[in-house]
């Protein structure tokens, strides 16, 4: 009997970000157009495991998901113990570009969700020529905060549990229980203060309202996919963002929340496959 | 789940409060949760005493000005929509309701945040069964 081996392979790669060496874990599967995948705040690349096991995708795309430094199996850079983690727009962009360079990816397509969706907008704004296409999932130039992030890292509240409980409401009620709880487990596993540090980018440093001029969707297509049950990056946030970017292609996805690829992969692929078909045709 | 009988003339808030009081005592989790939570369904209040992860009591406050750790209040309309078998987008979570200013959380939030999933699951006991 054959073991139930998945096609996913994991490796480490080291590169510099901000002059510091980072040892970064990534997983990949498939062959063809490189498709770099960015996880949500406080989570890791496991969110993309279903796409990496989907032959309709891996037959045409080399799907690559890396854990940001401080996340998943990527350690923080040396000396982390003396600092507070705070993700900035600049560091986020540098990390993504350094990863693509380290793997010598030539004009990859890229998909990012939540903070990954926000940074997709910044990549489209500053580095569109380096990408074949960009897909922002749950992406907007700004979102209204809905809780105090101080709760995410305190001595008297379990950080992992409160992170998971807060984001649990962002999963659509239709999403299968197994995928809902797998998604939440990642939040329970995050390092102390890491989710809050990611949200520094989301809430403080990465307000992109009025800063997204000059995006050339004719040169690098930009697709925006947002779940109807996402009240953090609500459909109207993405609609407002798309309205300011000529040529951006917007889809509001039914019965999905803030973690489409992870919370309900079967529903998400209905929206993702047409986008990937479109990119592959170009 | 059997639908509770509704006394004639009972307000919508009273119906919702009664539904919660009927269902909440069966809720428990293996977790050391201790808190007094005041709920308001429109104008109808329910004081919920949680001890050792169990609902020790859920009933209308016996006296005016009941003391509690934190309170959660929303309109009858908001609770009704929140408790639908498959709630509509934006009405499906406490914080979705709070963000749209349909629900208010007040008091000391530490016990709420320390046991957030417990409280979320407890408040969802009123949700109708899926067809």
Describe the structure.
The complex is a heterodimer of chains A (282) and B (131). Chain A has 282 residues and is α/β, with parallel strands linked by helices. Chain A has helices at residues 49-52, 55-58, 89-102, 115-127, 159-168, 177-189, 194-205, 235-243, 260-263, 265-281; strands at 9-17, 20-29, 33-38, 61-66, 109-113, 133-137, 222-227, 249-253. Chain A has a single domain (10-281), classed as Rossmann fold (3-Layer(aba) Sandwich). Helix content of chain A is 35%, strand content 18%. The longest helix of chain A is centred in the last third of the chain and has 17 residues, at 265-281. The relative contact order of chain A is 0.16. Chain B has a single domain, classed as SCP2 sterol-binding domain (Nonspecific Lipid-transfer Protein, Chain A, 2-Layer Sandwich). In chain B, strands 3-2-1-4-5 form a five-stranded mixed sheet. Chain B is globular and about 35 Å long. The model of chain B has no long low-confidence stretch (mean pLDDT 94). Classes of the chains: A alpha/beta (282), B alpha+beta (131). The interface between A and B is medium-sized, with 22 and 19 residues.
Structural class of chain A comes to alpha/beta
Number of strand segments of chain B: 5
Task: Specify the helix fraction band of chain B.
Answer: 25-40%
Number of helical segments with 4 or more residues of chain B: 5
Q: Give average pLDDT of chain B, whole number.
A: 94
CATH level 1 name of chain A: Alpha Beta
Order of helices and strands of chain B: HEEEEHHEHH
How would a crystallographer describe the biggest sheet of chain B? Answer: 5 strands, mixed
Oligomer: heterodimer
Please state the CA-atom Rg of chain A, rounded to the nearest Å.
17 Å
Mean pLDDT of chain A: 97
Domain count of chain A, please report it: 1
Q: Spatial order of the strands in the main sheet of chain B?
A: 3-2-1-4-5
At CATH level 2, the architecture of chain A is 3-Layer(aba) Sandwich
Helical element count of chain A? 10
What fold name goes in the CATH topology slot of chain B? Nonspecific Lipid-transfer Protein, Chain A
Q: What gap, in angstroms, lies between the N and C termini of chain B?
A: 12 Å
How many domains of chain B? The number is 1
Q: Can you identify the CATH superfamily of chain A?
A: Alpha/Beta hydrolase fold, catalytic domain
Biggest sheet strand line-up of chain A: 1-2-4-3-5-6-7-8
Spans of chain A of at least 5 consecutive residues whose pLDDT stays below 50 are none
């Amino acid at each position: 009997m054959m073991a139930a081996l998945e096609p996913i392979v994991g490796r480490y790669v080291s590169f510099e970000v901000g002059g510091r060496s980072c040892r970064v874990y990534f997983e990949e599967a498939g062959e063809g157009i490189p498709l770099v995948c960015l996880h949500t705040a406080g989570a890791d690349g496991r969110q993309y495991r279903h796409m990496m096991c989907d032959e309709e995708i891996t037959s045409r795309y080399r799907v690559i998901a890396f854990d940001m430094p401080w996340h998943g199996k990527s350690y923080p850079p040396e000396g982390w113990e003396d600092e507070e983690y705070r993700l900035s727009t600049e560091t986020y962009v540098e990390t993504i570009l350094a990863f693509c360079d380290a793997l010598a990816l030539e004009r990859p397509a890229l998909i990012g969700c939540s903070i990954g969706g926000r940074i997709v907008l910044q990549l489209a704004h500053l580095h569109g020529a380096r990408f074949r296409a960009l897909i922002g999932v749950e992406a907007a130039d700004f979102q209204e905060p809905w809780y105090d992030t101080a709760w995410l890292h305190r001595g008297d509240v379990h950080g992992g549990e409160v992170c998971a409980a807060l984001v649990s409401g962002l999963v659509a009620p239709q999403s299968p229980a197994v995928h809902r709880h797998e998604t939440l487990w990642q939040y329970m596993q995050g390092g102390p203060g890491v989710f809050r540090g990611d949200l520094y980018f989301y809430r403080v440093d990465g307000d992109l309202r009025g800063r997204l001029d000059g995006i050339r969707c004719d040169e690098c297509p930009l697709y925006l996919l947002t779940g109807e049950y996402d009240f953090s990056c609500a459909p109207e946030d993405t609609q407002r963002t798309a309205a300011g970017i000529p040529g951006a292609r917007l889809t509001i996805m039914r019965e999905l929340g803030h973690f489409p690829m992870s919370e309900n992969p079967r529903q998400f692929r209905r929206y993702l496959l047409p986008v990937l078909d479109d990119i592959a045709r170009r | 789940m059997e639908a509770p009988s509704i006394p004639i003339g009972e307000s919508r808030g009273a119906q919702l409060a009664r539904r919660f009081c009927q269902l909440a005592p069966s809720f428990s989790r293996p977790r050391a949760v201790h808190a007094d939570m005041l709920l308001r369904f429109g104008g109808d209040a329910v004081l919920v005493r949680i001890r050792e992860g169990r609902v020790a009591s859920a009933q209308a406050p016996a006296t005016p000005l009941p003391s509690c750790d934190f309170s959660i209040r929303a309109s009858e309309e908001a609770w009704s929509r929140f408790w639908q078998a498959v709630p509509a987008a934006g009405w499906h979570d406490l914080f979705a309701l709070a963000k749209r200013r349909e629900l208010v959380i007040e008091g000391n939030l530490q016990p709420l945040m320390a046991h957030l999933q417990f409280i979320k699951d407890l408040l969802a006991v009123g949700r109708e069964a899926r067809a």
